[in-house]
Specification:
Elements lengths: L1 E6 L2 H6 L3 E5 L6 H12 L7 E4 L2 E3 L10 E5 L11 E6 L5 H8 L6 E8 L9 E8 L1 H19 L3 E7 L1 E3 L4 E9 L2 H18 L2 E7 L2 E4 L10
Length: 225
Amino acid sequence: MQLNVVFFARLKREIGTEQLHLEVPEDADVRAVARVIEQQYGVSLRGCMAAVNETYATPEQRLHPGDEVAFLPPVAGGAAEPDTHCAVVETPLEMKTADAFLVRPAYGAQAYFVGTVRSPNGGKAVRFIDYEGFEPMARKVMLQAAQAAREQYGDLRIYIEHRVGRLYPGEASILIGVASPHRRAALEACDALIERLKVEVPVWKHEADEDGEHWVSGVTGHPTL
C-alpha cells in the first residue's frame, strides 16, 4: 500500500524533502514505516513522535492505504468553538486582539501567559530563533488542550496563538489567554494550558546564538519510536 509520509524540522533537512510517497506491506504499522525510512535514508527516528492523519499515534498503530504519517522530533481537535480561538500565525501576537476576544461582562477575570524569545539563553547571546510548526495538527492539539481545560475548570473563554517564522529577542512566540467568571479558575487554567502545550504542540525551534545555529532540544508528551 502507498502512504504519504511527512517530515518536520531537522528530519526534513536530514532526509532532503518535506514529504514522500512510500510503498509498504499491507499490514505495516507506524514502527515498520519508521524502520523503512531509517534504512532507506540513513536517519535515526529514535525518540521521535508520530502522527497519523494529524493525530498522535503509537508505534503499534496499523496503517491503511492513503494514510498520512508524520514524523515529529520532540517539540521545545475537532471544530473550533465560539468561545475558543486557536491559531498558528506568522504575524506579531497582539494582546489587544486577545483582550477583544476574551473580555465579556460575564467573565470577571482574565489571565495571560506570553512567552518571548530570551537572550542570553544558557549563557549565550541569542541572535534569533526560527520557529517551524505543523499547522493543522498544532491547531488540533490546541483545541484539545482548550477542551480539557474547560472540562477541568468550568466555563472559560480561551485564546491561544503560536507564532512561527524568524523571531528576535524580546518578540513573543506564544500568547495564551483565559477568561473565567472567577480569578482562580482563570489563573490555574492558563498555567495548565502552557504546561500541556509546551510538550504537545508540534512546533520546533532552530536557534542562532554566538556559537552558531542548532535545533533546541525538546521533550515528548506522547509515545516515541
